[in-house]
User: What shape does this take?
Amino acid sequence: MNRDKWWKNAVIYQIYPRSFADSNGDGTGDLQGIISKLDYLENLGIDAVWLSPVCRSPQDDNGYDISDYQDIDPVFGTLEDMEELIREAGKHNIRIIMDLVLNHSSDEHRWFREARKSRENPYHDYYVWRDGVEGELPNDMRAAFGGSAWEWVPEVGQYYFHQFSVKQPDLNWENPRLRREIYDMINWWTGKGVGGFRLDVIDQIAKEPDRGITNNGPRLHEYLRELSRETFQKADLVTVGEAWGATPELAKLYSNPDNSELSMVFQFEHICLDQVEGKEKWDLAPLPFQKLKEVFGRWQTQLYGKGWNSLFWNNHDLPRIVSRWGNDREYWEESAKMLAILLHGMQGTPYIYQGEELGMTNVAYEIEEYRDIETLNLYSDRLEKGYKEEDVLRSIHAKSRDNARTPMQWNEEENAGFTKGTPWIRVNPNYRKINAARQVEDGDSVFGCYRELIRLRRKYPVFVDGRFSMLLEEDENIFAYTRENEDSRLLVVCNFYGRTVDCPLEEPANAKLLISNYKDGEKAMILRPYEARMYLEETDDPK
Ligand code: TEU
Assistant: This one.
């Protein structure tokens, strides 16, 4: 097993800049805000920060619509602030990972402004156009945020293709000049000292709209290998692609240990389980627990030695895990820690989304408080289709992306210490109970649990290279597995629910309890609500 790649040992922390820390009181988080929190991040112990997009953008989709890839949006600061962040983070041994949005740009990008002028314009072919007649769409493909995926431009008498909002025209990767511009831009950022890149919806770049193909297009892996060769392979970077359509087979290509494509991908099979099959995430269904184990087990086993997993419960598009699959009421603390212990014992690079380390929860606002384009479009679409408002709101409360985007809860002061101004989105009302100030000094807090898990991963190689085996696959309450290498064996046992259960496993002999979420000792193999334990048996003590 290859232990030489720094990112196999690393824990990565995702920051959503607009919601993290506001230094200038305009209500939106910024780069200086992040710089002011580097001590906090170092204390937590993470190795790298993935920053959601900070490049210049009209913010139609909170920065995932980039109008200049080589400048910083004024709402977040300046290019000098970004250079300062990279430098200062380096002093705290933290690398900065940028978010590359390469599937589409903003319609306000210089390329697109040119492209829409005429068919002869040299930038026209940077985007995906189809001839047609106004009012007669090239086909019936839909955009992810609602409506048709085609938009008419009278100047050229053509439609352009957009998989996301109308302000996010898709880039045409078939054009080699476009690809070259992208590589030069990436190398420019690498030259500035960034530690890696997260690649937004990378499996959608090789679209073929005439055949209805969005992700996993025929040329996808050809493009990725060229991209990697021309950019990432020149430096010691971590790269993680967002790939909703990945299977373990595809993930072995993406994360091939020969480094020909990426370090790893985010795959979403586990996180899409609580929805009605074949429908949308808004169509809520209970989590099929045994299926969750089957999915994790399959990814852990199939990528062993052949690829690399990313491990996550949360990101800026997903609801808060403690509200989703834990219990954000009477077992808030126990379940937040259980979910952390369950995930961090597995093989792969763990990602912590801002506030997850505090057990931050979902919100249930009135529609006026939501800001996300996806949520707002869904709300009007479904009302128009005749859904009941209370049902639509129930879906939004459970799944809106804004659950993840409420401001980081730093302390008990007004606006949770996030801003001195008016926050761009309302703060979760529970910030007096759930905040960083209450937790950082307390070793028994959710924060303390995450910090300890990070420390353990660094100390014991079995976290990185141990072979995974799922136990009790059919059990209806318990999630248990082992990780084993030549000199030690890790056993993770979690009660995933709120009832006390008898665990049919033997208590391991000669094992030490590395971490658990109950203070008052263990009661043999009886697991209390959401109880989680991680044991280590070893022959060699690494000290
Ligand atoms: O997300 C890709 C994506 O497919 C999401 O829009 C997803 O469908 C949705 O969030 C789940 O309901 C990426 C970014 O992570 C997201 O924030 C962007 O909005 C999107 O790409 C477009 O760039």
